[in-house]
Each structure stands twice: as structure tokens, then as C-alpha cells.
Amino acid sequence: MDKKPSYETMSDEQLVQLSLKDQNSFYYLIERYEPKILRYIKRITNISPEESEDLLQEIFIKVYRNLNRFNRKLKFSSWVYRIAHNEIINQYRKKKSYSATIDSFAENDDTDYLAGFIGEALDIDNDYISRENAEKVRAALAKLPDKYREVLILRYFEDQSYREISDILRKPAGTVATLINRAKSKFRKIAKQHQLENLI
Fold first, then answer.
1. For the chain, percent of residues with pLDDT exceeding 70
2. Residue 73 vs residues 11, 16, 45: alpha-carbon distances, Å
3. Mean pLDDT score of the chain, rounded to an integer?
4. CB environment 1-26: b (16+ within 10 A), e (fewer)
């Protein structure tokens, strides 16, 4: 007799189906995505930790309420990030606190992510990123316009594919590719102002 899969080994889609039948199972989806979405909130906003937690709760309430409307053509992760993106935009409209700051990046130990990003954006060896340069990269990222910073964070920090970013932002994949290329270009210009010329 086959064993039932444990919650840890179930796919997101299996957990969604289970949660629709038994609301207690939704806890396992929260457990799987809570750290990722909280990190995403912190990376693209400058709201307080308490506000971040409140926003996180609102996001998962929205996810639960709309679970039966989940479009199976999408990856569940993309759908959750889309809801998070929309809630963050709503927060911005209410409080004008969307823009990231150097401090909000510095709260997270993102040096490895920054190394990966800078390596691809500026075509250099990832190992060259020192902690000092990582701080400068954070400052440069924080100065990018919101739409450019978010696509870079989704691509390089949240490790979302172009297709997933397209689903999250509801923009064609070609538009996403253009946004990322423009964001890299703008980042290079800002990087020069932060004395990162030695990386370019």
C-alpha cells in the first residue's frame, strides 16, 4: 500500500487542493512561503518590521480568500508574489513608503545575492564583491526607480524567471526583458556615482 506524501514533499498545487478541503492544511503553504514573502517585502519597501508583519498577514489572508480562484496555468509561487506585489502597491498608495532605503537592504545579509546580481549586471567575477562594495551596491539599488528596482529584485534576489516575473507583474515577457535591460543600464550609471567604477 502506497504511503501518502508528507506535507513537506507535496507540491504547491497539491497543498492548494488540500487546503480547499481542509483549511488547517493552509498552514503548510504559509510555512513554505512566509519567509520568502517577508524577505521580499523588506527588500522593496522601507516600512517598519511591525508594518512588514502586518502586511505579510494581509497578503496571506488575501491568498487564502482567493485560493479557489488560483489559476493553475500559473505557478503557485508566481501567484503568491503577484498578490504580494499588489498589496505592496496598495500600501504605497496609502503611506507612500514603497521606496527602498539603504537600511532596508542592509537589514538582510544579501551579499551573496548582490554578488550574483552585480556579476551578471556588470559582467565581472562574483568573487570580486567585497562586503564594502556590497554596501555601495545596496545604495545604488536603492536609488533606482521603483519599477526597475523591483524587476531586479525579483530576478536576482528572489530568483524568479522572466516568465514568472511576467506573471507576477502582468507584463509581457518581452516587456520584462526590456525592463531588466534598462534597469541594468540605469544601475551601471548610478554605480559610477557610488565609486563602483572599478567593478565596471
1. 73
2. 15, 14, 29
3. 80
4. eeeeeeeeebebeebbbbbeeeeebb
Distances (CA, A) of 189 to 80, 126, 143, 154: 33, 19, 11, 21
User: Is pLDDT above 50 for 46?
Assistant: yes
Q: Provide the residue ranges of all domains of the chain, joining segments of one domain with +.
A: 1-98, 101-200
What dotted CATH number matches 1-98?
1.10.1740.10
pTM over 0.70: yes
pLDDT over 90 percentage in the chain: 42
* CATH number, domain 101-200: 1.20.140.160
Give the amino acid at 168.
I
**Angstrom distance (rounded) from CA 123 to CA 106:** 23
Look up residue 86 and give its three cell numbers: 499588489
How far is C-alpha 33 from the chain's CA centre? 11
